[in-house]
Write a structure and sequence with these properties.
- The structure is a single chain.
- By secondary structure, the protein is α/β, with parallel strands linked by helices.
- The chain folds into 6 domains: 58 residues, ADC-like domains (N-terminal domain of TfIIb), CATH 2.20.25; 229 residues, 3-Layer(aba) Sandwich (Rossmann fold), CATH 3.40.50; 192 residues, Dimethylsulfoxide Reductase, domain 2 (3-Layer(aba) Sandwich); 120 residues, Barwin-like endoglucanases, CATH 2.40.40; 121 residues, no CATH class; 51 residues, Arc Repressor Mutant, subunit A (Orthogonal Bundle), CATH 1.10.10.1100.
- The protein has 31 helices and 34 strands.
- It has a 7-stranded mixed sheet with strand order 5-4-16-15-14-6-7, sandwiched between helices.
- The protein starts with a helix and ends in a 17-residue tail after the last helix.
- Bound molecules: ligand MGD (2 copies), iron/sulfur cluster and molybdenum atom.
- The site of iron/sulfur cluster (SF4) has 14 residues, from helix 2 and helix 8.
- Molybdenum atom binds next to loops.
Length: 920
């Protein structure tokens, strides 16, 4: 007998690896791509080994963008919130939820239910969202539950409701491939919905007749696909589409039969468009008459058209009107309810649509029923068996933070969103949260700008641990499956909400054993007393067994007896969901943005997304791989404007608005001829966690659309001036604690993390020599310091056991070493040669490292080798892929490769964007 084996504990006996396939959904954008994950092990000792797109998922057919491709690189448990905290101290769950429930009870007793609010997120799963909405509206008895989706697609929701009687997105992704005309309005899909953009590219190749129009003040990467780019004056979209409606009328391009049988309000709407002839439109939109006319002619003549719209439409003080102006044109030309046609609002977040379904906005009830409608209220209350039901709409996001600031709301529970960064009027949001009696934050990370204000921090489970459903932009419900156990004591959002509900005395109504049960209740509610009144009907998904729920295949709602496999396209029968069953035209006035430029604030501030980052970077910021494309926030500005300001590329400028608060925003300049003059663009992702002056939200004043309540986040009015600092520099330090200590000494800092070392751009109001002396005083005595001074510049290299711990270079004007070279110097496995030390001290780098910026993150291909191949004859993206592999994996850089080819005049005739094996 083998005694050794007998004495070995069971867990140490080598077990054969258990391999399995986990199928789930990407947690980022509203495309809703399926991902396949190969898992190893079981129970608590499971690991996720590799990830690919799900070949059979109808949203992506196997493709993923760069963010999805790198999901596993950001999924470790570092920086995860692991335990509940009360005023910064670890407590157990019972203490935390007792505290939350007691506070809610106390505030309701003293000030009424409207003094309590939830601020939730389109990144919650439908099941989380459902219980949060049910608790607030049916049991606490207020409608004060609003969501970051207010900042995202509430204008589209309001427009759909006005036109169709219900919040219904008529189209699906196949329409993008079946259309003859694709109009992208206020969407940078190449970066923000990359897998859909790849489908558009492919459609373009298959159908040479397909034309693409991009309507965006900036010339974005999306324009690589465009036949026409209309660089519209910001905020002027209503004029453009009002003009289109008039043009359709003037050129016999109306669908009179459809207008007559399926719509109402056409005559008044057309009358409101009469002032908008070609000249007036061109002048209002800052375009030429020829540009306007060629777009109009194409729309009028095209047998089908999809208008794909996003934040350039929604995030506006006339966002709802912009969306209705688009819808009007589709109704008038009958380009709706048929293949390849329709006004297609594209959602940003993975579950913005699911949130809409459960009614997670302050002006909705649940299952597309209305708060103002007493029949709906009664119906929902009875279904929930609830003690009460909110009788009027609650505070919408901007008003909510104002109400907190005014002391009207005394308790707020924030879930899965980072409003201190993402809301406009940051100064007010910070003040409101600092004043609020109780701020509860459920999040997955230990630090973000909002958690700084939390009295209670609750650790939620994250993607890869959560179990439930999400609905994408084309109404497709997909399962997100929990593959890993939540780390530490983290719990699922729905569990946390239900536990608090139970402690409030509502245990019976929140006694769910699993997300499957919650989903079932939601599906039943959509079907309950529906009678064809509401399109949102999931009766075909009611009563699923836990196994059926677990195996649920992606399906587009409505799912009913008549559409058991789901429904790809709405309104094919020309029946809408208004009282008359007819679609409504909305007559629209052209209004200017509210935060207007003036002599004091002459520049228009536009803001939006970068290719590789997700929102406030709590996840995508964790891997240096996703920071290589854009390492730092920059302000894109037209060359003439930078000349007028006297700033050159990479120099720091200060940005101020009338609502700025005390400190300015400070960003380095990126000179970009693709900007319109007088308009600048900044990315939204960087926050106070990332830099001392990266608080963009303070520059937008909270002006919002009167119908939807959606804040304007594309049109701030700002003043720009060169930032005055006496010294500028670069800091790299491998000791994280020391790094933070040093940053705190600088007047300006902005993190640029690398793999082996923390680095930052810094600046101060003292001389380089003085700052160096001050920082050196904070260093441990045992370290070896070598410094080098030349004129007003100074460099400092600090070594421990011959390994670099710190590198600091300070100058009167900013210069920096390339990040990847610096990073390689700090590689703990590398050797620091004398030559490298000398280069560092002289602030120089060997030429071989200067390969330009990273273009393809998957294969680490940089700008210079690509340009060299283009110079050497590569004339298509495909050819570049063959030579360097760039663009052949996730494809996110292909539009950029295409731009590089076009810029260098090398693009071949044939559209260069397809790669072998893309979507079939
Ligand atoms: N990489 C990445 N992808 C994302 C996200 C992310 O954080 N990172 N977030 C997701 C989310 S939640 C969302 S909502 C979507 C947003 O997706 P998009 O809406 O595509 O992205 P944005 O960059 O916010 O803005 C789109 C464009 O609107 C333009 N614009 C500004 N003003 C106007 C105007 O007045 N008229 C017109 N026609 N255009 C205007 C801007 O110049 C910008 O290029 O992206 C989703 N996808
Ligand atoms: N200036 C400007 N501002 C904007 C925009 C703009 O274009 N310009 N866009 C707006 C838009 S469209 C959007 S959608 C918002 C997005 O803005 P936010 O929603 O505020 O940004 P995120 O970084 O996505 O915040 C999500 C938070 O939830 C946490 N989290 C992740 N998963 C989970 C989970 O499962 N459970 C819990 N409890 N927490 C989780 C993350 O760590 C993070 O802190 O920004 C808006 N703000
Ligand atoms: S396009 Fe990218 S971010 Fe969006 S769902 Fe697909 S993989 Fe995720
Ligand atoms: Mo969004």
């Amino acid at each position: 007998m083998n005694h050794n084996k007998l004495n070995t504990p069971l867990s140490l006996v080598a077990q054969p690896p258990v391999r399995s396939l986990g199928q789930t959904t990407c947690p980022y954008c509203g495309v809703g791509c399926g991902v396949d994950i190969s898992c190893n092990g079981s129970g608590r000792s499971i690991s996720l080994e590799s990830l690919t797109g799900t070949p059979e998922h109808p949203a992506n057919f196997g493709r993923l963008c760069v963010k999805g491709t790198h999901l596993l690189d950001t999924n470790d448990t570092t920086q995860r919130l692991l335990y509940p905290q009360l005023n910064g101290e670890r407590v157990d769950w019972d203490q935390a939820t007792d505290f939350v429930a007691d506070k809610i009870r106390q505030v309701v007793a003293e000030h009424g239910p409207d003094a309590v609010a939830f601020y939730v997120s389109g990144q919650l799963l439908t099941e989380d969202y459902y219980v949060a909405n049910k608790l607030m509206k049916g049991f606490i008895g207020s409608a004060n539950i609003d969501t970051n989706s207010r900042l995202c697609m509430s204008s589209a929701v309001a427009a759909y409701k006005r036109a169709f009687g219900e919040d219904l997105v008529p189209c699906n992704y196949e329409d993008l491939e079946q259309t003859d005309l694709l109009v992208l309005v206020g969407s940078n899909a190449a970066w923000t919905h990359p897998v859909l953009f790849q489908r558009m590219e492919r459609a373009r190749l298959r159908n040479p007749a397909l034309k693409v129009v991009v309507i965006d003040p900036r010339q974005t990467e999306t324009c690589a696909l465009a036949d026409w780019h209309l660089a519209i004056k910001p905020g002027s979209d209503v004029a453009l589409f009002n003009g289109l409606l008039r043009y359709l009328g003037d050129h016999q391009a109306l669908d009179a039969d459809f207008i007559e049988t399926a719509t109402e309000g056409f005559a008044a709407t057309l009358a409101a468009c009469m002032p908008w002839d070609l000249e007036s439109v061109a002048s209002c939109c800052g375009l030429s008459v020829a540009e306007v006319e060629s777009f109009y002619r194409r729309f009028a003549q095209s047998p089908s058209a999809v208008t794909f719209f996003s934040m350039g439409v929604n995030q506006s003080t006339s966002g709802t009107d912009k969306a209705n102006a688009i819808i009007n044109c589709h109704l008038a030309s009958g380009k709706i309810g048929k293949p390849g046609s329709g006004p297609f609002s594209i959602t940003g977040q993975p579950n913005a649509m699911g949130g809409r379904e459960v009614g997670g906005l302050a002006n909705m009830l649940a299952a597309h029923m209305d708060i103002e409608n007493p029949v709906h209220r009664e119906r929902v209350q009875t279904f929930w068996n609830a003690p009460t039901v909110a009788e009027k709409g609650g505070y919408k996001a901007v008003d909510l933070f104002q109400a907190i600031d005014e002391g009207k709301v005394k308790f707020v529970w924030i879930m899965a969103t980072n409003p201190v960064v993402s809301m406009p009027n940051r100064a007010q949001v910070e003040r409101a949260l600092a004043r609020c009696d109780t701020v509860v934050v459920s999040d997955i990370v230990t630090h973000n700008d909002t958690l700084k204000f939390a009295h209670v921090a609750l650790p939620a489970s994250g993607w890869s641990e959560k179990n439930g459903t999400v609905t994408n932009s084309e109404r497709r419900i997909s399962r997100q499956r929990g593959l890993l156990p939540p780390p530490g004591e983290a719990r699922h959002d729905w569990q946390i909400i239900c536990e608090v509900a139970a402690k409030l005395g509502f245990a019976e109504a929140f006694d769910y054993a699993s997300p499957a049960q919650i989903f079932d209740e939601h599906a039943c509610l959509t079907a309950w007393q529906n009678n064809g009144e509401r399109a949102l009907n999931l009766s075909g998904l009611a009563g699923l067994s836990p196994q059926q729920y677990d195996r649920l295949k992606p399906v587009q709602w409505p799912v009913t007896e008549s559409t058991p496999q789901g429904c790809a396209r709405l309104f094919e029968n020309k029946r809408f969901f208004t009282a008359s069953r007819k679609a409504q035209f909305i007559a629209l006035e052209v209004l200017s943005p509210r935060q207007l430029t003036s002599a004091a604030y002459p520049y228009v501030l536009n803001s939006g997304r970068m290719r590789d980052q997700w929102h406030t970077m709590t996840r995508t910021g964790k891997t240096s791989k996703l920071l290589q494309h854009t390492a730092q926030a920059q302000l894109a500005i037209h060359p003439q404007d930078s000349l007028a300001l006297g700033v050159v590329s990479n120099e720091l400028v200060t940005l101020k608005a009338h609502c700025s608060g005390n400190a300015p925003v400070i960003l380095p300049v990126k000179i970009d001829p693709r900007q319109r003059r007088g308009e600048v663009f900044a990315p939204i992702h960087w926050s106070a966690t990332w830099g001392s002056h990266c608080t963009l939200g303070q520059l937008f004043d909270g002006s919002h659309d009167p119908v939807s309540g959606q804040p304007e986040l594309k049109h701030g009015a700002i003043r720009i001036a060169p930032a005055e600092f006496d010294c500028h520099g670069q800091l790299a330090c491998s000791d994280k604690g020391l790094f933070e200590l040093l940053l705190a000494e600088c007047d300006y800092w902005s993190r640029v993390p690398a793999t082996h070392v923390s680095t930052a751009r810094i600046a101060a109001n003292i001389s380089a020599v003085e700052l160096c002396r001050q920082l050196a005083m904070l260093l441990p005595k045992a370290y070896c310091q070598i410094s080098f001074q030349q004129g007003s510049s100074v460099t400092l290299l600090v070594l421990k056991d011959d390994h670099p711990v710190l590198y600091l270079s300070l100058h009167h004007k900013y210069t920096n070493l390339p990040l990847d070279w610096l990073d390689s110097v700090f590689d703990p496995d590398g050797e620091l040669s004398f030559e490298v030390q000398a280069s560092l001290l002289r602030n120089q780098v060997e030429a071989s490292f200067l390969q330009g910026k990273l273009v393809c993150s998957c294969f680490n291909v940089r700008e210079k080798p690509i340009l060299a191949e283009i110079a050497g004859g590569a004339d298509s993206v495909e050819e570049l892929g063959k030579r360097l592999k760039c663009g052949t994996n996730c494809g996110s850089c292909r539009s950029e490769l295409s731009s590089m080819l076009t810029d260098s005049g090398a693009a071949s005739e044939q559209s260069p964007l397809l790669i072998e094996g893309a979507l079939s």
